[in-house]
Fold these 3 entries.
Entry 1:
Amino acid sequence: MASEYGWSKRSILEDVYPDELTSYSKEIKKRNLKNKLRDIEVALIPNMEDGPRKEQLSELVSEINSLEPEPIADQAPELDRGALRALKDQMRSSSRLIKVKG
């Protein structure tokens, strides 16, 4: 991620949650694939004769370019309030050093 986004190691370790890593990795791979495909398109399609292979390559390029990135912020799971309450109750009953708010 440091080479892709220019982030420092410290920034990655402190600001990126583990569940976001897979989303960022997928987006980096997808962007790299699109860039490679664009390079192929620029190099090959103008020099190809009209025919099924040219049409297939054009369709593949269009299909990959239409892929929407997955929203990273919207992937947070729904808060399980019952489990949170159970955890609070357990911490209240078993710990004398930790104060738990209601």
Note: Residues 2-94 form one domain.
Entry 2:
Amino acid sequence: MTPVYKIRDCSGKFSTGGRWPRFTRLGKCWNTLGHIRAHVRQTYSKHRETYDHDSWRGVREVPTADGLEVVDITTGEVVTTVAKLLEEMS
């Protein structure tokens, strides 16, 4: 079976993806770990503030990767954590 990935927080909710993700019961699915890495780079990277063009919305806190897991929802297994992906990218 082809893996399908989601990012889960410590409350069991899933990321909606995008620049300012929320966590909901359903969340978003990613088909590859490469797509997850791209989302993590865009959203949780330490360099994110450099590229923040959303200042017209007011000051927002940069999302934290603490406690976020990447889960293969077809098996229920935790594949990695967002913190580990960020570590690999730096």
Note: Residues 33-44 form the longest helix (12 residues).
Entry 3:
Amino acid sequence: MDTYEKLLAAGKVKQVEHLTRQEMLMFYDQMSALEMQWMRGQAIGETVFTFVLMYDDSLLERNQSLKALVDSTHLNGNMAFQYIRRTNSLNEDDYIICTFTFKDHISYQDTHQLLLSLE
């Protein structure tokens, strides 16, 4: 998978500071669709983890709306993993924690405050 810097250099993506409202809504729609595909059983590496902006915190600090989206995605993923870990049997390889997983240091309260500040 290409990094954000490679995609930017190739002219395939914009600087995060220059995203329009419509482009931000498209990101929200895309991320929701990727999460739902993962929850319905598709591989996490082919769904949620294909969103290239999830991996560079310095980019997210430059666009608070994008940061709220990515932080919410990490929180949702962690909640799913916690729920699955509590089950009596784990049969799905897709739900086994791997090296690339969701960040677990993101606070629900901080993300909630960030979302409220965007209104």
Note: The longest helix spans residues 64-85.
